[in-house]
Amino acid sequence: MGHDAFKNMPKKEKTIPKNRYLENNDDGFNLLAQLISAESDVSAESEEILRDLENMVDKEFLELAMNNDCPRSAKIYSDLQKVYEDLVDVVNFPVLENTFTVAVGGGFSAGKSRFLNALLDEKNLLPTDTSPTTAIPTYILNGEENAVFALNQFQHRTEIDEEALHAISHAFNAAYNVTFSHILKRISVERTSIPYTNITFLDTPGYSKADDVIQRNNNTDEHIAKEHLRTADYLIWLVDIQNGTIPEPDINFILGLDYELEVLVVMNKADKKIESEVKKVVETARKDLKKNGIPTYDVIGFSSSKNIEYSESKTVLRDFLKK
Ligand SMILES: Nc1nc2c(ncn2[C@@H]2O[C@H](COP(=O)(O)OP(=O)(O)OP(=O)(O)O)[C@@H](O)[C@H]2O)c(=O)[nH]1
Ligand SMILES: [Mg+2]
To answer: What is the DSSP pairing of strand 138-142 with strand 184-191?
Structure first.
């Protein structure tokens, strides 16, 4: 697509936050171009190991399987491919192997991103909005310097600035009709201020949103959220407390993750209810989770706007992370 073609694309009318990538067509285009064309910054040595492995899986194993009658070769081949993809991940994002991943999942606008901003005490770290916002799974971790990296679908990593982090959201789609989910695999945000050095936090797109541009592909938000949540070590599930309990689609989604550990369920936006109501909703959610056989660490009320936990001990979240 030529530069001019991009320039003339119609802008949908929508109120979006002030951001040069969203407001200035040239900046928006350049960001896209940078993300798509990023060169690999993986060392030559690692590249070679990965190439050898790829060769082993895609050539040597296939030849071996073809020459020997092995009924399970298709299954083994798909397992090997999965291992190869995991190794590519390790090479591109080694820190993920050395830390626990605490993932935040939930329906669209449950407050996942704002919850992480509150938890990590950085008000404007992740973009939040009432319309669908998070488009790309975002990993947040302690780092020696503040930096944001985007990894594209070709496994190439590029450093972007904070403003770009805020532009890479569904707001970009609203402004330009271009969606990032085909282009980017994940974003990682490194922050010196993050006090948990052995945890990588993961913010995911709301699983429950229909975005007709993305829906035609397999890249729905639901699919993306599921793929990333599956790999997490611990799961925090966010629900907008105004639902009155954990909604049935959430329950089905969690069950579909085949997640074996206990989930911490957070009834978010508790500031929108009086305290006795918060207690009632938490109890109802507790019962519904039990009824559906979801192993639950605990259910708490929380306000991400006020950064307050509503529970007996008031330290459930802290204890969960300590664990
Ligand atoms: N009053 C109140 N509003 C909240 C709270 N948490 C989030 N919000 C608001 O709810 C809206 C959605 O919050 P986000 O953090 O963007 O939600 P999300 O789950 O990340 O949404 P997606 O990324 O679109 O799936 C925003 O307008 C937030 O300001 C809360 O605890 N209290
Ligand atoms: Mg979000």
So the answer is: parallel
Ligand closest to 268 (CA) is: 1
Nearest CA, atom 14, ligand 1: 111
pLDDT in tens, 141-185: 999 999 999 998 887 889 999 999 999 988 888 888 888 888 898
Is there a domain that residue 234 lies in? yes
| Integer Cα distance of 96 and 76 in angstroms | 25
The residue with tokens 């994002």 is: 93
**Whose Cα sits closest to atom 9 in ligand 1?**
111
Nearest ligand by distance to the CA of 304: 1
Full residue range of the structural domain in which residue 238 is found: 99-322
268 Cα–ligand 1 center, Å: 9
Give the mutation target among 15, 104, 114, 116 for probing the ligand 1 site: most ligand atoms within 8 A of CB: 114
Percent of the chain with pLDDT over 70: 91
The atom number, within ligand 1, closest to the CA of 108 reads 25
Residue nearest to atom 11 of ligand 1 (CA): 130
From the CB of 273, is ligand 1 less than 6 Å away? no
CATH number of the domain to which 239 belongs: 3.40.50.300
Domain count, the chain: 1
Is pLDDT of 4 > 60?
A: no
Structure tokens that stand for 24 in this block: 């200035």
CA gap 106, 124 in Å, rounded: 20
Contact 90, 96 (CB under 8 A): yes
Q: Model confidence at 9, in pLDDT bands (50, 70, 90)?
A: low
Cβ neighbours, 10 Å, residue 169 = 27
